[in-house]
From TrEMBL:
Gene3D superfamilies: Aldolase class I
SUPFAM superfamilies registered for this protein in UniProt: Ribulose-phoshate binding barrel
BP-aspect Gene Ontology terms: L-tryptophan biosynthetic process
Similarity remark: Belongs to the TrpF family.
Gene it is expressed from: trpF
The protein, known as: N-(5'-phosphoribosyl)anthranilate isomerase
Source species: Eiseniibacteriota bacterium
Domain N-(5'phosphoribosyl) anthranilate isomerase (PRAI): 4-210
Length: 223
């Protein structure tokens, strides 16, 4: 089971996540709202502190391919999580600028329309991440809300997609096994579900990883 622990704040949290089985860590750059934001300089330092066996995800809300490529060049992250939607013409440009970097597009599951949006975006990226946000709200939410969404919609996206689809949004030890059985994703991703007062909590982390590893119905398309 592929597991990504997001909102990593420092090297100690990165080491803790990796020690308990994280396959990837998420590092949040500037966002319009939400938890876990750190500077690009800190992201680069944390990326530099881990070995290449763990994927490092740069979460970005930037919309310019050139700006995103500059962030990646500075931070050296191995993957980019696009928390906002680029214009159609910008995806090929971004791919050309970052040929060796995994591009993962976030799709905020708000209803049945999300399936069409996901399948429209899928050809441009290496995978999709289904999250719970409100990108069109007055204060835009692009992730880290701690809320679940309609997993039946996510399941239909997984069934239609040909690339890896990861599930996020309100996951925790108590519901992750059911989420995996319901959606059959390629992996799971979370932030708040393993934190206490903002800090990564070892007890919650251990419980989540154990529950995720035990989850049935896993669909292995993570590579």
């Amino acid at each position: 089971m592929w597991i990504k622990i997001c909102c990593i704040q420092n090297e100690d949290e990165a080491r803790l996540a990796i020690r308990h089985g994280a396959d990837a860590i998420g590092l949040v750059s500037r966002m319009p709202s939400g938890p876990g934001v750190i500077s690009d300089e800190r992201i680069a330092e944390i990326v530099g502190s881990v070995d290449g066996s763990v994927e490092t995800f740069l979460l970005t809300s930037r919309l310019s391919p050139e700006d995103i490529a500059t962030q990646v060049d500075m931070t050296k992250a191995s993957a980019v999580q696009l928390c906002d939607r680029l214009s159609a013409a910008d995806y090929p440009t971004l791919r050309g600028l970052l040929p060796a970097t995994r591009l993962i597009q976030v799709v905020h599951v708000e209803g049945e329309d999300s399936r069409a949006a996901a399948l429209e975006l899928e050809p441009h990226v290496d995978g999709l991440l289904l999250d719970t946000g409100r990108p069109n709200a007055t204060v835009r939410e692009l992730g880290g809300t701690g809320r679940t969404h309609d997993w039946s919609v996510s399941r239909r996206i997984v069934e239609s997609a040909t690339k890896p689809v990861y599930l996020a949004g309100g996951l925790r030890a108590e519901n992750v096994a059911n989420a995996i059985r319901s959606v059959r994703p390629s992996g799971v991703d979370l932030c708040s579900g393993v934190r206490v007062e903002g800090a990564l909590d070892e007890t919650r982390l251990r419980a989540f990883v154990a529950a995720a590893r035990a989850g049935k119905g896993f669909r292995d398309r993570s590579s």
